[in-house]
Design goal:
Layout (H helix, E strand, L loop, with lengths): L1 E4 L4 H12 L1 H16 L5 E3 L20 E7 L12 H22 L12
Antiparallel strand pairs: 1-3, 2-3
Helix pairs in contact: 2-3
């Protein structure tokens, strides 16, 4: 089970970097990252050796400027899929992953703030 955004293309990568540099959004992402680290899950997607020039990240959010993708995942044994405790595990993992998903929707998704069509 996972949450995140792989291979952020130009427009989304620009929105992502702007959010990392925003004091409130960057601090929120840093907190989400700490929470996932504390849970033993972490965040992946770091691809750069140095942050891109011209960006001033929010305090504690600087490592996230090294990312060109941002995702987190939990892997469980396949046998768990048929076990009675499967849904409890899914619920527990999603509770940890959902903040990352919601942060990306709020700050990176292309249609943020616009109503979705129901066509």
């Amino acid at each position: 089970m996972g949450a995140g955004a792989h291979d952020l293309q130009r427009e989304r990568l620009e929105r992502y970097r702007a959010a990392v540099c925003d004091p409130a959004a960057g601090a929120e992402l840093a907190r989400i990252g700490r929470d996932l680290d504390d849970a033993g899950i972490g965040i992946a997607g770091s691809a750069l050796r140095r942050p891109p020039s011209g960006f001033s990240p929010a305090p504690d959010a600087a490592p996230f400027l090294l990312h060109k993708a941002l995702f987190s995942a939990v892997t469980e044994p396949a046998a768990l899929a048929t076990a009675p405790e499967f849904l409890d595990g899914v619920e527990q993992h999603w509770a940890r992953l959902a903040p990352l998903h919601l942060w990306l929707v709020a700050h990176v998704q292309a249609d943020q703030g616009r109503p979705r069509s129901r066509g």
